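Renewal narrative, Specific Aim 1. Our central claim is that a sequence can be written position by position from structural information alone. The example that follows is taken directly from our test logs and has not been curated for this report. It begins with the structure tokens describing the chain, in the order in which they were read.
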């Protein structure tokens, strides 16, 4: 009983100790202030980074917009990590934990973690080279393995790709071995146009060329006048002409649809027929009637 009474008395003494409550209150206020200041510093720092890149847009020595967007996201991420690390160290110091001893042992711990987290190290190294070599940037349309979409974010550890249907794929950088980038160079829109065998091919090519001359002025996504490459195929019921148009990166799908619409309307105006499936109806009753009539004549 004396033992438990002693413990209860110690608890009461500590609970009644004003200095203890003052130190706890002061520590809690410091921790709250650290969280608030860290959040403010991160927001202000991100705005400053954005303003720096806005100023660079007026500089004659600016880099490409793709690379600027990538570096902007990366620097904002690094700022967040650094501020959170410093805030964590300050909170530990507020809690009277010896931070210097922890930092001294961080080298040995980091070495041990490095051996155990080889995939993490590989992700970071690969992410660094993706950014350094400008393999792809934020906003590019890429294919990585089985995933194809727009790059939303590139970090030192992961890359985020958003497909056209809205799914967001997060890929570890260490798993990125092959990349197809569709946004670096102009695209090519290819349209196959069918005309009937009865149509005059030479006339059709002349009429189509007249329309194609007007397309670059009509649609800004088309870089230069589309070309008729010639007869692509002789099908069962139609002659297939192939048309190619150079477009801005990743605009070939849109341009191809516009070309098909314009070509259909233009050919209709010029009386050139686009073949379509036809069905011939055969009536067996008519055949029986014809045979009876033919038999009566023989008699």
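The sequence written for that structure reads:
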């Amino acid at each position: 009983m004396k033992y438990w009474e002693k413990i209860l008395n110690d608890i009461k003494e500590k609970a009644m100790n004003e200095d203890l409550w003052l130190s706890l209150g002061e520590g809690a206020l410091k921790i709250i202030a650290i969280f608030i200041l860290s959040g403010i510093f991160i927001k202000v720092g991100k705005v400053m980074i954005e303003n720096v890149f806005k100023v660079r847009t007026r500089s004659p020595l600016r880099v490409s917009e793709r690379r600027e967007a990538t570096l902007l996201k990366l620097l904002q991420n690094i700022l967040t990590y650094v501020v959170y690390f410093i805030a964590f160290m300050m909170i530990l110091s507020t809690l009277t934990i010896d931070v210097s001893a922890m930092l001294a042992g961080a080298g040995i711990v980091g070495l041990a973690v490095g051996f155990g987290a080889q995939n993490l190290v590989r992700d970071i190294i690969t992410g660094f080279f993706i950014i350094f070599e400008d393999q792809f940037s934020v906003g590019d349309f890429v294919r990585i393995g089985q995933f194809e979409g727009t790059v939303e974010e590139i970090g030192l550890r992961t890359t985020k790709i958003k497909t056209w249907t809205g799914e967001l794929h997060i890929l570890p950088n260490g798993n990125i071995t092959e990349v197809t980038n569709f946004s670096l160079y102009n695209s090519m829109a290819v349209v196959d146009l069918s005309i009937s065998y009865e149509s005059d091919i030479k006339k059709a090519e002349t009429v189509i060329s007249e329309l194609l001359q007007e397309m670059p002025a009509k649609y800004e996504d088309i870089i230069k006048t589309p070309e008729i490459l010639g007869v692509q195929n002789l099908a069962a019921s139609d002659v297939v002409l192939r048309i190619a148009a150079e477009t801005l990166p990743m605009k070939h799908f849109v341009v191809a649809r516009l070309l098909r619409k314009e070509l259909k309307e233009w050919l209709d105006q010029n009386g050139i027929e686009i073949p379509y499936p036809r069905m011939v109806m055969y009536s067996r009753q008519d055949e029986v009637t014809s045979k009876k009539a033919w038999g009566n004549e023989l008699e």
